[in-house]
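Lab channel / #folding
Pinned by the channel admin:
"Please post every new chain as: sequence first, then the structure tokens as a reply. Keep commentary short and put observations after the output so the thread stays searchable."

First post following the new format, from NK:
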Amino acid sequence: QVQLVESGGGSVRPGGSLRLSCAASGITYRSYCMGWFRQVPGNEREMVASVYSDGDSNFADPYPNSVKGRFTINKDNAKNTLYLEMNSLKPEDTAMYYCAADNRCPISIGSRYWGQGTQVTVSS
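Reply from TO:
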């Protein structure tokens, strides 16, 4: 059974930082591309970061402009865990964050496996 379990969300003030984690099981983790997505109620789910299966090479454009320079994705193949470092957080980063996995690359909204999500709220 495939499981992706996110953690690390919470409430933070603007300018603060959070580190999200996604623990994977039931897949050959090192063979999977991974990504982080976020969704606000009423909006479409959007990708915020992606990484190739080896974790060492990203896609040509792994971050959208909205998070570029502030978010960093890291895939630890030794721990079967995906991370998202989020710095300089803004209120518009408030969303439910999901990790996704697929052995078809690049990662996309049609990815095969999803976690349950972790809420990030940025507010003063």
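NK: The beta strands are 3-7, 10-12, 18-25, 33-39, 46-51, 71-76, 81-86, 95-102, 113-114, 118-122.
TO: also worth noting, The first strand starts at residue 3 and ends at 7.
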